Amino acid sequence: MYNPDDYLLLSGIQHFLFCKRQWALIHIENVWKENTYTIEGQILHEKADKPFLKEKRKNKIISRAMPISSKTLGLSGILDVIEFNKSDDGIKLKGRDGLRKPTIIEYKRGKKKKYSYDECQLMAEAICIEEIFKTKLDYSYIYYGETDNRIKVEFDKDLRSLTIDTAEKMHQYYENKIVPKAELYRKCRLCSLNEECNPRLTKKPKNVKNYLYGELL
């Protein structure tokens, strides 16, 4: 169990899986820079991030920008959207009749990725909700703005293990102030910290030939 003073940002779990150096630059060295993709992501989240805005639609209650945290993971953050649907195996909400089942909706700018970066973040959010409401979530959803579709994510044993292990590694990196050396990948071109990280120069020997002709390699 982690002390609240030691909590890390939950959203960082996606950064950590995508690129540990990117995560370390942001969360350890406090380096940040906007680009087209980060700005588009902010626009997508504008409605979801209105604190404490609640809606009721028939048998569904929708809550936005809910603060969450997990003592098990040592992470805290803000949920985009969580829905509470009437269900016989749900939980009791203060001031509401009946039982309701919580389901998280995480918003992402792009499209579904090959790897489990987004799913792991959603799983971390689910673990927070499980601790807060003393329940268990079997699934939730990720909405992708680029493809305009909602994808169901099952919370299986492997995803839970990956999420817990990743959170532990994040704390190890943070406590020891580990900033990994740069590695050069295709995805580096899309990163808002490309210039600050400068993987082409830090990965390859710093000589004139690499500097002049690096863009052709």
Structure summarized in a few sentences:
The chain contains eight helices and nine strands. The protein has 217 residues and is an alpha+beta fold.
Can you offer a commentary on this structure?
Belongs to the CRISPR-associated exonuclease Cas4 family. Keywords: Antiviral defense, Exonuclease, Hydrolase, Iron, Iron-sulfur, Manganese, Metal-binding, Nuclease. Its EC number is 3.1.12.1. The chain has 217 residues and is of the alpha+beta class. It is 35% helix and 24% strand. It has 2 domains: 4-180, Lambda Exonuclease, Chain A (Alpha-Beta Complex); 181-217, no CATH class. A 6-stranded mixed beta sheet has the order 2-3-6-7-8-9. The chain has a 3-stranded mixed beta sheet with strand order 1-5-4, covered by helices on one side. The termini are far apart. Residues 34-45 and 204-217 have low confidence and may be disordered.
What keywords describe this structure?
single chain; 35% helix; Lambda Exonuclease, Chain A; 217 residues; alpha+beta; 8 helices; six-stranded mixed β-sheet; three-stranded mixed β-sheet
Helix-strand blueprint:
Blueprint: E1 8-9, H1 12-18, H2 20-27, H3 36-45, E2 54-57, E3 60-64, E4 67-70, E5 75-78, E6 81-92, E7 99-108, H4 117-133, E8 139-144, E9 149-154, H5 157-175, H6 194-197, H7 199-203, H8 208-213
Parallel strand pairs: 1-5, 7-8
Antiparallel strand pairs: 2-3, 3-6, 4-5, 6-7, 8-9
Estimate the mean pLDDT confidence.
82
The biggest beta sheet reads: 6 strands, mixed
Structural class: alpha+beta
| CATH C-level category of the largest domain | Alpha Beta
Total number of strands: 9
The fraction of residues in strands falls at 15-25%
Low-confidence stretches: 34-45, 204-217
Instruction: Order the strands across the largest sheet as they lie in space.
Output: 2-3-6-7-8-9
Oligomeric state, counting identical vs distinct chains: single chain
Q: State the end-to-end CA separation.
A: 47 Å
Name the overall outline. Answer: globular
Could you tell me the CATH topology label of the largest domain. Answer: Lambda Exonuclease, Chain A
Summed up, the domain count is: 2
Q: In angstroms, what is the radius of gyration? A: 19 Å
- SSE string, helices as H and strands as E: EHHHEEEEEEHEEHHHH
Family: Belongs to the CRISPR-associated exonuclease Cas4 family.
Cofactor: [4Fe-4S] cluster; Mg(2+); Mn(2+); iron-sulfur cluster
Keywords: Antiviral defense, Exonuclease, Hydrolase, Iron, Iron-sulfur, Manganese, Metal-binding, Nuclease
GO molecular function, one term: iron-sulfur cluster binding
